[in-house]
């Protein structure tokens, strides 16, 4: 008589333990997923806080010297980055045949120049010298209303490749917004240092103009 209830209770206890173990096992993937989401969210929050505290709309970079280069602009003149030392300079790498990203960036730069109402050195370095013929470059600048406002620099592939490497440019990926090597806009401060980077999704005329003014102000009042 006593043995049968003990067996029954033991069976119930076994079922409870198994059910609890199964619940724990099933819960583990969900817990890892939630933790991963939390970490990602925290990382994004930290990045956003850092951007807000810096006062820049773009991504503030550690101050490192921008590599100098000398190339030929659309008018056949030799242009060096170093000749603009002392002024905030806009630098981007585009191609006249990169669509739709490159025309979009050109339009955003034009909007920033319009808003600033003053001349800001703007260098567009070719990411595809074979495609960037004089006729295509003229058409590209005309469609973006940038004629006479920027210098579109090109050269041989041998001249350009060391510059692409120095600025972490992969020409074939310029139009891919999901690539870390997608087209972007770099601001170089008056001391010739890389300071501020805009990816396509961050870039607006207002944000670019704001950060140019801020770099000018920071240099004037260190």
Notes on the structure:
- The protein has 222 residues and is α/β, with parallel strands linked by helices.
- Helix content is 47%, strand content 18%.
- The protein contains 5 helices and 8 strands.
- The termini are far apart.
- About 19% of the residues have low confidence.
What are the segments in which pLDDT stays under 50 over at least 5 consecutive residues? 7-11, 13-50
CATH topology name of the largest domain = Glutaredoxin
**What is the 3D shape?**
globular
What integer value in Å does the Rg equal?
A: 27 Å
Distance from N terminus to C terminus (CA atoms, Å) equals 92 Å
Main beta sheet: strand number and arrangement?
A: 6 strands, mixed
Amount of helix: 40-55%
The CATH homologous superfamily of the largest domain is termed Glutaredoxin
User: What is the averaged pLDDT score?
Assistant: 80
Number of strands: 8
Strand fraction band? 15-25%
Can you count the helices?
5
Derived structural class = alpha/beta
Q: Give the ordered list of helices and strands.
A: HEEEEHEHEHEEH
Using the 3D structure, state the CATH architecture of the largest domain. Answer: 3-Layer(aba) Sandwich
Reading off the top of the CATH hierarchy, the class of the largest domain is best stated as Alpha Beta
**How do the strands line up in the largest sheet?**
1-8-7-4-5-6
What count of domains describes the coordinates? Answer: 2
């Amino acid at each position: 008589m006593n043995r049968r209830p003990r067996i029954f209770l033991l069976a119930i206890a076994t079922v409870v333990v198994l059910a609890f173990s199964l619940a724990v096992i099933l819960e583990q993937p969900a817990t890892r997923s939630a933790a991963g989401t939390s970490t990602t969210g925290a990382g994004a929050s930290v990045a956003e806080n850092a951007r807000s505290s810096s006062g820049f709309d773009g991504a503030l970079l550690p101050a490192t010297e921008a590599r100098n280069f000398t190339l030929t602009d659309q008018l056949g003149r030799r242009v060096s980055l170093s000749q603009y030392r002392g002024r905030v300079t806009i630098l981007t790498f585009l191609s006249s045949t990169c669509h739709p990203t490159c025309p979009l960036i050109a339009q955003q730069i034009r909007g920033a120049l319009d808003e600033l109402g003053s001349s800001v050195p703007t260098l567009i370095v070719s990411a595809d010298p074979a495609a960037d013929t004089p006729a295509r470059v003229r058409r590209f600048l005309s469609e973006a209303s940038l004629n006479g406002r920027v210098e579109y620099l090109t050269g041989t592939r041998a001249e350009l490749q060391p510059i692409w490497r120095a600025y972490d440019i992969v020409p074939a990926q310029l139009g891919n917004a999901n690539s870390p090597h997608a087209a972007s806009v770099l601001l170089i401060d008056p001391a010739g240092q890389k300071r501020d980077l805009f990816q396509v999704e961050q870039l607006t005329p207002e944000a670019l103009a704001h950060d140019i003014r801020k770099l000018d102000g920071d240099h004037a009042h260190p």
